[in-house]
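Lab manual, section 2.4: Encoding a predicted structure.

Procedure: take the sequence of the chain (481 residues), apply the prediction step described in section 2.3, and record the output as structure tokens. A sample record is shown.
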Amino acid sequence: MRRLRNVKIVATLGPASDDYETIRGLFEAGADVFRLNMSHGDHSEIAARHAIIRRIEKETGRPIAILADLQGPKLRVGRFARGEEELKEGQTFRLDLDPAEGDARRANLPHPEIFAALRPGATLLVNDGKIELRVRDCGDDFAECEVITGGVISDRKGVNVPDVVLPLAALSEKDRRDLEFACELGVDWLALSFVQRAADVEEARALAAGRAFILSKIEKPAAVKDFDAILAVSDGIMVARGDLGVELPVQNVPPIQKRLVHACRAAAKPVIVATQMLESMVDSPVPTRAEVSDVANAIYEGADAVMLSAESAAGHYPLEAVTTMNNVAIEVESDPTYRELLDAAATGSKRTVADAIVSAAREIAETTDIKAICCFSESGTTALLTARERPKVPIIALTSKIRTARRLALSWGMHCVMTGEVERFKMAVVNAVRAARSAGFATEADQIVVTAGIPFNQPGTTNILRVAPCEERLIFNTDPE
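Recorded output:
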């Protein structure tokens, strides 16, 4: 099951991909990570999908990452007496806490925390930004607004508040229940919605208590502003361009995407680019040319993963969507420009022994005839540092911990292999050689680079590098250990 690309593919599961045959088909087409959207489906449905993924993982012998995406608080208007109303540009429209059904002049907004944070001049966006309201006057229970962009407003449409940091926790009561359920189920990653500040991530981490890694979704202007602090306390990042494109001018999203991807690479933390990547494939067996270019751009930028949402969860062509994304990735990564862009965006931060070891491994691999870099990693840190280097040769991550192998399945270029615990570097080299040969990365006539930490099984001790022949007889005859 060796992939012919480095970028990873995240496929969301849903009604269109709910059975063993389809999920197995998605994996074989190229999905490396499966996303379980906690906004859709009850716990029994989520558990059934989780069980199918773990069955496929066992059958194929390839670690698969499972990402549970928490819903986050949902801000919505109330209901309307006629179901919907049309708002005209320039008219006045009031939002308040009155639970009475709305009309063309007012509507219920059952979120006192919004009114507490609003100030005159603030913007409210309704229905994915299709309606824009500007606050003229406000109090603890109301906001008098001018309609800047009109349109049809209807029952339970979502509300975004882009230029105000809301006094809302990123985790609702539903999220807390879902988080505990997902951790007990055994997911590998938790995606945290509505992140505004680093404290939101720290709260989720405390609740997860080491049972899952935390991936922060960047979908609000406040998160972009506080990104460095959020990145520091997160294990990974998702650039959630849907809400980000609602709350910010659309032209701001591409440069933000590039900046966040670059920062994540510098920090050696995986980053997913998500939302509307192949949106037309929900209903069409082929994507638009613009969508293909969008996926390609994320890959050229060096993202660790690209994600399918409705395309694989609810669309008519889930397998075709994954196959298309896989084919685009293979084609982009074979382009010489791809390598030029990756090298140009390389980070120069080398402060530790581990940094120096992985940097040397890449340089050796790229200046000699080396077929792969094999790194032993108990916590995953050394493998992530190796991925940050974006080497030209494959990365094989060997670990005795299935949790680490699944975590790394999200990261760029990582081919994860389970191995038994080793006590001596000689056996580490032998295991690396066997993994490289069995996966088709090398033959007995080739050489690989092996990195590890002595003593073994202690995270953060990477301190040794060796160029090893792939003929086991030579290893045993020449290794002094």
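Check your result against the sample. Residues 31 and 138 are 48 Å apart (CA to CA).
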